[in-house]
Structure formats: C-alpha cells, structure tokens
Design a protein that fits this description.
The complex is a heterodimer of chains A (199) and B (112). Chain A is an all-alpha fold and 199 residues long. Helix content of chain A is 63%, strand content 0%. Chain B is mostly helical and 112 residues long.
Chain lengths: 199, 112
C-alpha cells in the first residue's frame, strides 16, 4: 500500500519487497568481501540500513540493485577503515599492466591446446571465487554484478555512480585479469598444455 | 536460457560452416558482414545482450562462419558458464536470516 501523496511504500512492505533478496545480497556480500564472517555482518548492516531508509526507496525500481548499492557502500566504508594488504598489492599489480590488446592473448594460447575450453570444467569453484576475490574492488564489483547477478550495464552504472562506458571498461579489464589468472592456474595444474613457446 | 542455449539458437542456421578464412568478412548472407576485429571487439557486449549500433544477428553471423573467431566466442562463453557454476546453490545461511529478522523486529519496536 502506498502512502497518499508520497509515492513511497510503508515499512510493512519491506518484507515483501526487500527480504526475498536476502540470498542475492548474501552472495554479493560474500563475493565482494571474500569472507563469510564479514559477509554476514554486511548483510545485517545492509538490511538494517535499508529498513531505516525504506522511505527513500522508490517503488517500482529494482529493489535488489538498491540493496546491492547499500551493501557495497557499507563494504567500502568497512574497507576504508582497514584496507587489506593483499587487496592493495592486487590493485597495484593489476593496474600497472597498461592497455589491453583487442584480441585476448589468453584465448590465443588456449585455442591452440583446447579450443573448446574444456579445461574450465576442471577448475574447482573455490579457485574461481578466490580469483574473483583477488580482483581490484571496482573490477570485482562489475564482474560480480554482471556475470554472477545478471545486472545490465545501466543498472551497474547507476549502482556504482559511474558512466556506462566505465562499467564496460571495468568489465573488460576485470574479465581479462580473471581469465588470465584462471588460465595460469589451469596450466599449473596440468588441465591445459602451455603453448606459450609454440609458434 | 543459458548462454549456450542462446548461442545454439543464434547459430542454428544451416549456413554454419568453418570455411571462413582470416580477413574474410563473411561473404554474402542475410546480415551485414562485419570484420574479425569488429566481432572480437563486440564479443562481450554480444554475450551480455548489450550491443549498441550493431545487431546480434550480425555478430552471430560472423562467429558462425569464421573459424578463427569462433573459438574466442566459445572460450568466452565457457568462462561465463564457469563463473555461473561457481556460485550455484549459495544461499543465505538460516541463522543469518533469523538474525536479520530479529534485528528488524527490534528496530521496528523502537519508539520513534
């Protein structure tokens, strides 16, 4: 039920609109933070803040995206208070790699040994999640929201307060870094033959 | 519909073949031919369903006839399937759900 003249929905509707997204918010928090303990804290804080500011939610808009935005803001504030050493290292490494080539060099190598990409089937989920976790936060957020949660470029742009072009760039670079890491892992495990030295 | 299903649907044309050579733009067909460079540059937007200024049919057509580019599409697709698989069945723990509900009930009971 909408409050007359306000265009807002009362807190009674919070249960119907927001709570069904708890699984999605938990997954997002888990991928973003890489820690189950922190993810649980983020989920609690997200829903508490969402409940308190429910009158700011616009009915008919994407409630899940709104909750993700709150969750990410809570996470970023938490991170500012104690940025993890490994994240600082990761961001420095990944951002120093310069411009990316149009043709994915990882695929160029993979095509020679496994053009169907069957090596992906051997990679365990935990390893995938670990490499997602190793991405810089802005790349990680874009990849999670697009590839795991299926949000559109426009939704991600609004959530992260950047232009759509920036979302595309972050997705492109985030995926490239992730693909490279997973390929290197697959080579190290013998899931795919290293063809770097072949001409 | 999975990415693979979508791909199969898009590539379901009987014209599918691997006869395309490097530098060939696909020859005559129902779609405007695009170059390998353009197809590769658009592969993310194509798989994301976010193409702008070019149709998915045009991109799909190129991949369906170009044996050089097709594996890149295939690998990109398998990569996405891997990401999707990695988070299957990841649900909010029951104890956390209860904690959130208790927190909200306490918040609602707070005098304004």
């Amino acid at each position: 039920m909408t409050e007359p003249g306000k265009g807002k929905i009362p807190k009674a509707d919070f249960n119907e609109e927001a709570l069904p997204h708890m699984d999605a918010v938990f997954r997002f928090a888990l991928r973003l933070s890489g820690s189950r303990d922190l993810a649980e804290d983020l989920v609690q804080e997200t829903f508490l803040r969402a409940f308190r500011s429910w009158d700011k939610y616009t009915p008919g808009t994407q409630c899940k995206s709104w909750l993700f935005t709150i969750c990410r803001n809570v996470f970023l504030r938490h991170r500012e208070r104690g940025q993890r050493h490994d994240e600082i290292v990761s961001e420095n490494v990944d951002r120093s790699s310069g411009p990316f080539e149009a043709v994915n060099p990882v695929w160029v190598k993979a095509v020679k040994a496994d053009p169907e990409g069957e090596f992906f089937d051997a990679i365990v989920d935990e390893r995938v999640l670990q490499h997602i976790q190793d991405l810089p936060e802005d790349y990680r957020t874009a990849v999670i929201l697009s590839d795991l949660e299926g949000l559109s470029y426009q939704e991600i742009a609004e959530m992260t307060d950047v232009p759509v072009g920036t979302v595309k760039s972050r997705l492109f670079r985030g995926r490239r870094v992730l693909q490279s890491a997973l390929y290197d892992y697959a080579v190290s495990m013998g899931y795919i033959k290293d063809t770097s030295d072949e001409t | 519909m999975t990415l693979f299903d979508r791909l199969k649907q898009l590539l379901g044309s009987p014209k599918f073949s691997h006869s395309h050579s490097e530098g060939d733009d696909g020859g005559s067909g129902p779609c405007k031919p695009i170059s390998c460079m353009e197809a590769i540059a658009k592969v993310h937007e194509y798989l994301d369903g976010e193409l702008d200024g070019i149709s998915s049919e045009e991109v799909a057509h190129h991949f369906s006839i170009c044996q050089k580019c097709y594996p890149h599409l295939k690998l990109e697709e398998r990569f996405r399937v891997l990401l999707q698989r990695s988070q299957q069945d990841e649900a909010c723990p029951e104890h956390l759900r209860e904690q959130v509900l208790e927190l909200l009930a306490a918040e609602a009971a707070e005098p304004r």
